[in-house]
Specification:
The protein is an alpha+beta fold and 411 residues long. The protein has two domains: 3-52 and 275-409, no CATH class; 60-268, no CATH class. 56% of the residues lie in helices and 16% in strands. The protein has 14 helices and 14 strands. Strand 10 and strand 11 form a beta hairpin. It starts with a helix and ends with a helix. The relative contact order is 0.18.
């Protein structure tokens, strides 16, 4: 038989047992689905991390009480029991680092806040920052309208605010100028002096849903016991590491640590965040691969079992074909094609459903649709291998049937 005729015959044979064929492909689809869905989701998170880090600035790092990421365990109490980084320590740090860094910003924040203007109100999901005059520069924000905080705003603890674009669009939807308008945040009045330029999302969260007030006012009127964080921008990438070294020493002095005492604060750098994510990504990838491998092997055994049943059911058909001169390779090739079809169809179904499911994460992170081409190619190759490897024994058995015995079986 020619190749085209072999393919048509294999497709016809599978169509004759559609329910059994679809159930067989389901096992392959589950295995491919698990790996494609996980890898698509991880790729979406990876892109979100990359965009989030680019928004922080290449030469920026932070000093804070807690590490960027930690997942419980016995070390959790060590971080919680650390003394807060006080505003006074932050001011002392800035003085020690004077002329040693590009910009140094002090900030403290609280999520879950609501703003009200007239009869309009936002959802209670605004991040309220208490910050100094360097917040915008150190954190990559630009002023679109009005002005930024200045030193006197911090010195005199003025009740003023700079708002993000999301807040502006919610409270002033008709294009009304928000400058000098009074808004109420958690029951306290602030006068709007500026609006930040749109910054977009990072790590799946909007960076425009914020309100910034002077840090001195935040500490005096909202939360005196909140630990602050310090954002440091190095003057250049060349001076980045030396700035980190000087910042660690300055913070130890500001915190009153002795030479023997360990650091009771954390340094959050872009590199540390990337490495934390990469480690998490590797762990999830290995787990997904193991699960998918087990599912695909199980599916391969199912394909072998179904093909052996098919050989048994079609013994007389094979005998007739061999008695009229069909060569072994033709029968071998047909049964291999049937096994390959079962595996590849299941793989394609798994790829489509997996990519669609994984892109739910992309949507959540405000990213465009993602298609993991590399993993799709790997999945197709693996599915082809599964179909050939597990279909080889049934195909070999069919090709080597004795035509006389096959016709005598009467099946």
């Amino acid at each position: 038989m020619k190749l085209r005729e072999t393919v048509i015959q294999a497709a016809y044979s599978l169509q004759a047992n559609r329910l059994r064929s679809w159930l067989t492909t389901l096992g392959v689809a589950i295995g491919v689905f698990s790996i494609i869905a996980v890898m698509t989701a991880l790729q979406a998170v990876d892109q979100s991390v990359a965009s989030g880090l680019s928004s922080l600035g290449a030469n920026t790092f932070e000093i804070q009480k807690y590490p960027a990421t930690f997942f419980g365990g016995h070390g959790r109490s060590r971080f919680i029991n650390r003394p807060n980084i006080s505003y006074e320590e932050g001011l002392a740090f800035k003085k020690l680092m004077e002329n040693k860094a590009g910009n140094i910003g002090l900030k403290v924040s609280r999520s879950g806040n609501q703003a009200i203007y007239g009869n309009r109100s936002t959802n209670p999901d605004i991040t309220l920052y208490g910050a100094d005059e360097n917040f915008a520069t150190a954190n990559g924000f630009d002023i679109e309208n009005g002005r930024n905080l200045v030193k006197n705003d911090i010195r005199y603890s003025r009740n003023i605010a700079v708002i993000g674009r999301d807040v502006m669009h919610t409270l002033f939807p008709d294009g009304e100028n928000p400058l000098e308008k009074p808004i109420k945040v958690n029951g306290k009045l602030y006068r709007i002096i500026g609006v930040f330029m749109k910054k977009g999302a990072a790590f799946g969260q909007s960076q425009d849903n914020l309100i910034v007030i002077p840090i001195s006012r935040y500490i005096a009127h909202i939360d005196i016991n909140k630990s602050i964080s310090v954002t440091v921008e190095a003057a250049s990438q060349k001076e980045y590491q030396s700035t980190i070294d000087q910042a660690v020493g300055a913070m130890r002095i500001a915190r009153g640590l002795t030479i023997e005492a360990p650091n009771n604060f954390e340094l959050r750098t872009n590199e540390a965040l990337v490495e934390s994510f990469r480690e998490f990504q590797r762990t999830i990838s290995i787990g997904a691969f193991i699960i998918s491998f087990m599912a695909l092997v199980t599916a391969g055994v199912g394909i072998m079992n179904i093909m052996l049943v098919s050989v048994t059911e079609r013994t007389r058909e094979i005998g007739v074909r061999k008695s009229v001169g069909a060569p072994k390779r033709s029968i071998l090739r047909q049964f291999l094609f049937e096994a390959l079809f079962l595996s590849l169809v299941g793989g394609l179904i798994g790829i489509l459903i997996g990519a669609g499911t994984g892109n739910i994460v992309a949507v959540a992170f405000n990213l465009p649709p993602i298609f993991p081409v590399g993993w799709v190619i790997v999945s197709i190759v693996v599915c082809s291998g599964i179909g050939i490897i597990f279909g080889l024994f049934p195909a070999y058995r069919a090709a080597n049937l004795d035509p006389v015995e096959a016709l005598r079986s009467g099946k």
